[in-house]
Task: inverse folding
DNA sequence: TCGATTCCTTGACCATAGTCAGAGAAAACC
DNA sequence: GGTTTTCTCTGACTATGGTCAAGGAATCGA
């Protein structure tokens, strides 16, 4: 307990202060955070507001100020002209790159004085601390596959498969998993969210007395390494077991090496192909019920 | 690198914000920090200023405000009437206890959702992160044993021995280590400091071709577990070796179990008593020079 | 004993962060 | 087509954190 308190004080205040100073570089911290959060691709003002949890009036003023400095432009969103969309100007983009660089510098300054062995231990311990602290904040819920969070996850999932598969990914070629197959009574769709943002998903298709099928398992790139995949996997298994499944099976592509490693270490055994998914290279199955 | 950056963002901002809110409880954060830092025993205003790194005017105003709330009294220091000394009133003491409780609650809230195995891992990893981050910030210097930092360390060292030894500790009974024996050319006195505050010390008495003697090794209670003892020990050994010693020896009391464990694991072997230190229960020696 | 220095206080000032109510424009609802 | 809701902006206001310079009281140094 005392240990935790001291950690909070030392690490939080010391690094936090440094972090802020590095990020701010002469600019009010609020502006720097907004600049950062807008991102390369631009961002709707309402999204900024919810992500940074700022008052509408305050954010508006921050944007005006950034606009006056020539760092961002704010225009109407193409789809809904009430919504305003902030984009970085070229100068803003340069500025953001600079912030990025400084953030890297800061990280490097922690690692530099250490030996390579110590560096590894530091990074490993940091990951562990983060994983355990964040784990308590992640919520996994059953949602409808047509709800916005689920659609967001699926969109990201497909985009990632398209990037990673050697052949790209075309959903119309793959075996489908339709919305009605991933909601009750045919199945379930789980979404993990952190501070209200969806960061991982997975679906189960029930097949009566046959093994249930695991589909659409995805973890956001910036949430990896937190043990979230494993947690999602066991939540899906638990959901399947609760709905009468005695086993779960799945197919996967050979490029998804981390996923394959995770399946193996979670008790999945490779089995012969049980379907003709064109993108499938490996098929796995795990029997449920031993743990309950 | 990315890992370190993410750790900084997540842990720092998330916990930092929580920590501040917990600590503040309706009061400006600045006031809460001052209230905390004054401590049960009271504190000179100048010390507060340097510890919290606040502007003199600003701190003065904060104290006025705490005084107006009846939490603090500020009076002249007994030794130097320019210096002002802040003390907690009864109400202030209650308030500080409350802050203490909340800080505990916060720490508990991190641990609570975890299994006991996870808790252990979290605490261990936090200690590791802190140790490695702080290690880079600690400076070990050779100082004169009569300098204020050295005197502070020695004072704390004796107070601790007095608390821990079954018989209490009376410096006039023990074998002495006089200031001139711990400065060149007879010996050396090392102090480790973090942000300018001394947090550990140790001394070497040289004996020509005979083994050097290690004395006065101490680590501040709130800096333990950071690997500082081991670091101080190897700095002392290095200093001794640099000044011609081929071996180091020391005596210690049986109640100092962590120290004894550290000596053993650092390559010290127990040897027969080489002096008649009345508080000595164990005598150790280590040959130097193999590592250089 | 007479500056010089140290320590603190006070008044004047400033920037950042944030809140709140009102209003205008666009979209959604019925 | 009129009403309601959503989204944003603006102006007015507040609190917090912080800086700076002047000055008074105590102490130090010669």
Result:
């Amino acid at each position: 307990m005392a240990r935790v308190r001291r950690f909070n004080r030392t690490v939080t205040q010391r690094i936090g202060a440094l972090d802020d100073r590095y990020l701010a570089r002469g600019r009010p911290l609020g502006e720097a955070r907004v600049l950062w959060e807008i991102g390369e691709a631009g961002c709707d003002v309402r999204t900024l507001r919810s992500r940074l949890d700022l008052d509408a009036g305050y954010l508006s003023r921050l944007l005006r100020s950034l606009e006056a400095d020539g760092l961002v432009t704010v225009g109407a969103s193409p789809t809904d002209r009430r919504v305003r969309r902030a984009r970085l100007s070229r100068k803003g983009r340069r500025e953001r790159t600079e912030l990025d660089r400084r953030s890297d510098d800061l990280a490097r300054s922690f690692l530099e004085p250490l030996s390579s062995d110590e560096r590894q231990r530091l990074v490993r311990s940091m990951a562990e601390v983060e994983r355990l602290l964040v784990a308590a904040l992640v919520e996994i819920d059953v949602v409808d596959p047509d709800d916005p969070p689920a659609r967001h996850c699926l969109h990201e999932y497909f985009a990632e498969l398209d990037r990673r598969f050697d052949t790209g990914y075309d959903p119309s070629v793959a075996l489908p998993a339709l919305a009605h197959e991933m909601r009750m009574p045919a199945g379930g769709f789980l979404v993990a969210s952190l501070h209200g943002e969806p960061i991982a998903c997975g679906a189960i298709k029930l097949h009566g007395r046959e093994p249930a099928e695991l589909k659409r398992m995805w973890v956001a790139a910036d949430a990896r390494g937190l043990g979230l995949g494993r947690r999602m996997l066991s939540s899906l298994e638990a959901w399947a077991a609760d709905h009468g499944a005695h086993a779960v099976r799945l197919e996967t592509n050979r490029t998804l090496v981390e996923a394959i490693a995770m399946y193996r270490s979670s008790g999945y055994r490779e089995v012969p192909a049980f379907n003709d998914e064109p993108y499938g290279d490996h098929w796995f199955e795990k029997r449920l019920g031993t743990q309950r």
About this structure: The CA atoms of residues 89 and 111 of chain B lie 33 Å apart. Residues 28-30, 54-55, 57-58, 76, 80-83 of chain B lie near DNA strand D (CB under 10 Å from a C1'). The longest strand of chain B covers residues 197-207. The two ends of chain B are 33 Å apart (CA to CA).
